[in-house]
Design a protein that fits this description.
single chain; alpha/beta; Rossmann fold; 7 helices; about 30% helix; about 10% strand; globular
């Protein structure tokens, strides 16, 4: 374990907040072909890819990345579940969760398991799309919270998901070590309860290979919380980029393209 991996869990540094303005530059670069990564690696084997948006975003935010990957020869689509609101818009009780979550009792439930509920919805969608697309394996690319969902789908559907790529995804603590913590606490959620649930899920490791692209200067997710210490086949790649710009960053796009070709 490297010194960086051993850093204590903490939220993102306030000193990095101004760095999120880099996302505007990333978005601008998408409109200028000369600033896009040169010589993108054509797909050695076209993949069936689903791209999942981050919290507060929908498929419109991932359209540029999907278009880029499609030009490389992949079949790419959005997640198809609308705005990612972390599942708080899904009416449910703890009893509605699939058995794999094995949640602990909670005195007053305030949607602490909304993300697991969202993951269950995505599991259903991936099962359906797997059949509709001819039964071939799927690759999931998830930005931030979308990466959390992608990971849990891969955990539950090891025979359907062949690879996971995440961008700035918190894999430890749920929202506890992110800027979104205040939002969820404001809704009365017990973030410690959520953190314990995340830790319990790791007792069943994700079998699919994972590439986690993260930024040490991320001002939305604490960097230590993006380190996966449980999955048997995980690769971490650090890039100096804004969290909000990871899905728009041409350098990240090229990393994704190269990752897709790495095992083919």
């Amino acid at each position: 374990m490297s010194e960086r991996d051993a850093l204590p869990l903490a939220g993102p540094s306030a000193s990095h907040a101004w760095r999120e303005t880099r996302a505007l530059l990333d978005a601008a670069r998408m409109t200028l072909p000369l600033l896009l990564p040169a010589g993108p690696a054509r797909a050695r084997r076209p993949r069936q890819i689903i791209v999942l948006p981050g919290f507060g975003a929908d498929d419109r935010a991932t359209w540029p990345l999907r278009r880029y990957l499609a030009k490389l020869g992949h079949h790419v689509e959005g997640w198809g579940l609308g705005l990612n609101r972390a599942g708080i818009d899904i009416r449910h009780t703890l009893a509605d969760l699939s058995p794999g979550w094995a949640v602990e009792p909670i005195a007053t439930y305030r949607n602490e398991a909304s993300v697991p509920m969202l993951c269950d919805r995505m599991v259903e969608r991936v099962r359906r799309r797997h059949g509709e697309l001819g039964g071939g394996p799927l690759t999931l690319v998830g930005w931030s919270l979308g990466g959390v969902v992608a990971r849990e789908v891969a955990r539950d559907l090891p025979d359907l998901v062949e690879e996971v790529i995440t961008l700035g995804t918190p894999v430890q603590g749920g929202p506890k070590y992110t800027r979104a913590a205040a939002f969820f606490r404001g809704r009365g959620m017990d973030l410690d309860w959520i953190e314990r649930g995340v830790a319990r899920r790791e007792s069943r490791p994700i079998r699919a290979p994972i590439t986690a692209i993260t930024s040490p200067t991320d001002a939305v997710v604490g960097h230590a919380a993006t380190r996966d210490h449980h999955s048997p086949d995980v690769r971490h790649i650090d890039v100096d980029a804004a969290h909000l710009g990871l899905v728009f960053n041409p350098t990240v796009w090229r990393m994704i393209a190269e990752t897709l070709n790495r095992r083919d």
